[in-house]
Amino acid sequence: MSSGRSTALHTDRYELTMLDAALRDGTASRRCVFEVFGRRLPGGRRFGVVAGTGRLLSLIRDFRFGPEELRFLRDARIVDAATVAWLETYRFSGVVTGYREGELYFPGSPILTVEGTFADAVILETLILSVMNHDSAIATAAARMSIAADGRPLAEMGSRRAGEESAVAAARAAYIAGFSATSNLEAGRRWSIPTMGTAAHAWTLLHDDEESAFRSQVDAMGPETTLLVDTYDIAEGVRTAVRVAGPALGGVRIDSGDLPTVAAAVRAQLDALGATGTKITVTSDLDEYAIAALAASPVDAYGVGTSVVTGSGHPTAGMVYKLVARESASGDWIPVAKASTEKASRGGRKRAGRVIEEGTATTELLRIVDAGDVSDTVPRGTRALQVVLVDAGETDAAFEGPRGVEGARRHHAQVRAELPLGGYGLSRSDPAIPTVYQEGAPPSEA
Amino acid sequence: MSSGRSTALHTDRYELTMLDAALRDGTASRRCVFEVFGRRLPGGRRFGVVAGTGRLLSLIRDFRFGPEELRFLRDARIVDAATVAWLETYRFSGVVTGYREGELYFPGSPILTVEGTFADAVILETLILSVMNHDSAIATAAARMSIAADGRPLAEMGSRRAGEESAVAAARAAYIAGFSATSNLEAGRRWSIPTMGTAAHAWTLLHDDEESAFRSQVDAMGPETTLLVDTYDIAEGVRTAVRVAGPALGGVRIDSGDLPTVAAAVRAQLDALGATGTKITVTSDLDEYAIAALAASPVDAYGVGTSVVTGSGHPTAGMVYKLVARESASGDWIPVAKASTEKASRGGRKRAGRVIEEGTATTELLRIVDAGDVSDTVPRGTRALQVVLVDAGETDAAFEGPRGVEGARRHHAQVRAELPLGGYGLSRSDPAIPTVYQEGAPPSEA
Question: Could you list the residue range(s) of the whole structural domain that residue B26 is in?
Answer without folding.
Answer: 13-138+314-438
